[in-house]
Each structure stands twice: as C-alpha cells, then as structure tokens.
Amino acid sequence: MRYWKEWKQSILHLFFPSLCALCKQALLIQEQVLCIACEHKLPYTFYHGLYNNETSLRLAGRFPFQHATSLFYFTQGSAVQELMHALKYKNHPEIGAYFGTLLGKQLRNEANFQNIEAVVAVPLHYKKEQQRGYNQSNLIAASCAEAMGVPFYSKALIRKRFTQTQTQKTRSERVDNMEAAFFINNSNLFVNKHILIIDDVLTTGATMEACALQLLKLPGTQVSIATIGIVI
Predict the structure, then answer these.
(1) Contacts 24+ apart (CB under 8 A), 36-43
(2) CB proximity list for 130: less than 8 A, separation 6 or greater
(3) Which is nearest to 200 in space by CA: 132, 112, 151?
(4) What is the pLDDT along the chain (232 residues), one digit of tens a residue?
(5) Which of the four, 112, 137, 213, 217, has the lowest number of CB atoms within 10 Å?
(6) How far apart are CA 223 and CA 68, in angstroms?
(7) DSSP bridge pairs for 26
C-alpha cells in the first residue's frame, strides 16, 4: 500500500509539479515550498545559541524571559517579506507550516530551548482570523511544536480585542493598542511550565510583550520567545 501511495505521488508530481514559492521552478519530490537553492539563500540569523542577540535586546527589560530568537532577518523587498506576504494575504498556509518546521528543527537541537514544555502562538482576533481563513502564527507554531516534540496549545490564549493595525504606530502607541488585548482560556495548561511563544515577525515587540505578561501572571510560568522574522 505504501509503495502504491509513493508511486501515485510520483505520477502526480510528474504531471502537476509544485513550484518553488520564490523562483517558480518545479520542486523535486523531496522539496517543500522552496527549492534547495532558494532555501539556502534565506537570511538566517543564527541567533538561537546567542543570549545577546537582536531579538533578546529588543525585548530586554520589558518582561522576564528565558531566551529569545528569530529565524530570519526581515527587510523590505526581501525573499522573507515576499514569503510572509504570500502567507498572510495570498492564502498560502503551506508557507506557515514550512517556516514552523524549519524553526522547530533548529530549536530542538539548541541547548537554550531544550526545556521548552509547550508552544503557544500569538493569537488573532476571531474576526481577523475569519477574514484571512487562518492564523499564520498558529500554522507556524503547530509545525514548530511537532518538530520539537512538545504540545501546541491552539486555543489556550485568546485575543479578546480587535486591535487596530500596528503597522504605522510608534512603539508607545503599539503598547497602548495591545493593552488588555489577551486573556488565558485555560490557565492549567501553563502553570509551572516553560512556554515558547511564537509570532511571525518581530517589530517593536508590543504584541509579544502583551502575550508574555498575561502568561507570566500564572504561578511558576516561564516564557521564551521565537519569531520567524525580525525587522531590521
């Protein structure tokens, strides 16, 4: 049965090949979303084992966290921006799963992230999630958790306010905009655990700060942070 499935996939791939999300060349059967050449060109930060990386420094002093990292540098006009735009606005959820798997495979081998006990994503308000069809950070977090071999709690942290877009706001305005935007739906999942909070792109960090502060109200809870991109 397994060989029939593999043969069927090979035939489908021959006549209907998937294309690389960047260069649009046909992918090999073992490639997902990006061809190997385009994947190798992505601007990895290599932050995971560094304590004083830019992600950590951007969040330092705002809330207590164990470790913080980002997978890629995010710059205007970059491949990462193109992929993230396709994920968020062009209905390409497979990019989220791909990013999450890349992140999880790296973090599971890093000493700084060996003690993670569960993963949670920065939530979208349900109205915005209905408009988009999915929460891109949920897709990233679910795949990251699977690659790390830890649970993913998809509905335990809820966004209760439909906040205005953060794109054009200053850091102070973003913090005000996010105040009291989140609540914990099931606190028992987080008590006395080390939680990894995942978001797509880190800019000022106001959204991440608001999520972390809610979780840190619980007894014994520790948080670490990971994003796919960091705006530089």
Answers:
(1) 38/79, 41/79, 42/72, 42/79, 42/80, 43/72, 43/73, 43/75, 43/78, 43/79, 43/80
(2) none
(3) 132
(4) 554 444 444 444 444 479 999 999 999 989 999 999 999 999 999 999 999 999 999 999 999 999 999 999 999 999 999 999 999 999 999 999 999 999 999 999 999 999 999 999 999 888 888 888 999 999 999 999 999 999 999 989 998 865 555 455 565 655 666 667 898 999 999 999 999 999 999 999 999 999 999 999 999 999 999 999 999 9
(5) 217
(6) 9
(7) 19
Burial class (CB within 10 angstroms; exposed 0-12, middle 13-18, buried 19+) of 129:
middle
* Token reading at 174: 């973003």
